[in-house]
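Need residues for this backbone.
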């Protein structure tokens, strides 16, 4: 039980760090970088609060992963929920009332040490059926990854 509590604490800390990094990187100026960044939508605080449907997805992009060790996501109340020993692919839909700059986040912890080998996990966040954030992360025997979307 202590190991499970420790793992949940680590996932919560990882999610917190990702949120902080995301907030800081939102201020980054990509002008002149030559990488043609995706335009950031103009913030519209007056559009909030509002009800949205959020879907979190985690899937195996490559390699062999039958189950994720744990997945943590932002739940209906804005808190965090963690599920353990999760069959892949994973999908969770929730309805939530969000305020300006609330977040939706998903994090995965994968320990594939019993069957080591390269693998990739794709994480996605959909809002009202539209993909707003997607990233693919790779690992060999383990992986810690997270993505965050801020409502603005």
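Answer:
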């Amino acid at each position: 039980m202590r190991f499970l509590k420790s793992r949940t604490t680590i996932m919560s800390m990882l999610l917190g760090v990702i949120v902080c990094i995301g907030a800081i990187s939102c201020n980054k100026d990509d002008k002149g970088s030559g990488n043609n960044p995706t335009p950031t939508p103009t913030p519209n605080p007056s559009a909030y609060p509002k009800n949205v449907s959020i879907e979190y997805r985690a899937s195996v992009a490559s390699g062999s992963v039958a189950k994720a060790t744990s997945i943590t996501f932002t739940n209906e109340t804005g808190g965090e929920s963690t599920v353990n020993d999760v069959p892949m692919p994973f999908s969770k839909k929730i309805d939530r009332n969000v305020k300006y700059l609330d977040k939706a986040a998903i994090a995965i912890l994968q320990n594939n040490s019993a069957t080591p080998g390269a693998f990739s996990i794709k994480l996605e966040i959909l809002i009202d059926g539209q993909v707003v954030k997607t990233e693919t992360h790779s690992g060999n025997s383990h992986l810690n990854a997270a993505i965050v979307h801020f409502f603005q």
